């Protein structure tokens, strides 16, 4: 069965965005990054509607450099699912899921293939945590403290025990932590 992997960047004080939605603190490693390996190990991305509207079809411009263009080419080659309660939302590049999340997710997981990236946003992460649908949490902890913003975890209903699988540090000071959800 495919694993669902939450992979995201977070500040040392636990925020995934600044108070105004900013992510300018996020360091994109251009070499030695295991993010390319991560992308090679998935074939599906789960988005919340707002995250999808912001990033699901985003394209870097020519000035962004070949690494970022290469990364987004890989991202856009994956099957995309958007979870939303907005029944009017439509997109021809993604499958939209409005209800019965657990049933839909389990059907997708059982199709076989590579793993699934839970991209986010915050509300979708909370929903997946509370439904017990996450298998792995990969966090790139960035060396910055914002003091305010959108927290990574908010409204979690129950304790989730984790087992540390890997921990690495990049030259820029980003700590990549990978945890398995203990069931």
List the helices and strands and how they pair.
Layout: E1 4-11, E2 15-17, H1 35-40, E3 42-48, H2 49-56, H3 66-75, E4 79-83, E5 95-97, H4 101-109, E6 115-120, H5 122-131, E7 136-142, E8 150-151, E9 162-169, E10 175-181
Parallel strand pairs: 1-6, 1-7, 3-4, 3-6, 4-5
Antiparallel strand pairs: 2-8, 7-10, 9-10
Helix content: 10-25%
Rg estimate, integer Å: 16 Å
Helical element count? 5
By DSSP, the count of extended strands is 10
Distance between the termini: 15 Å
Q: What is the overall silhouette?
A: globular
Write the CATH architecture name: 3-Layer(aba) Sandwich
Structural class: alpha/beta
Strand content: 25-35%
Unreliable sequence segments? none
Largest sheet: 8 strands, mixed
Specify the CATH class: Alpha Beta
What structural keywords apply?
single chain; about 180 residues; alpha/beta; Dihydrofolate Reductase, subunit A; 8-stranded mixed sheet; two-stranded antiparallel ribbon; about 30% strand
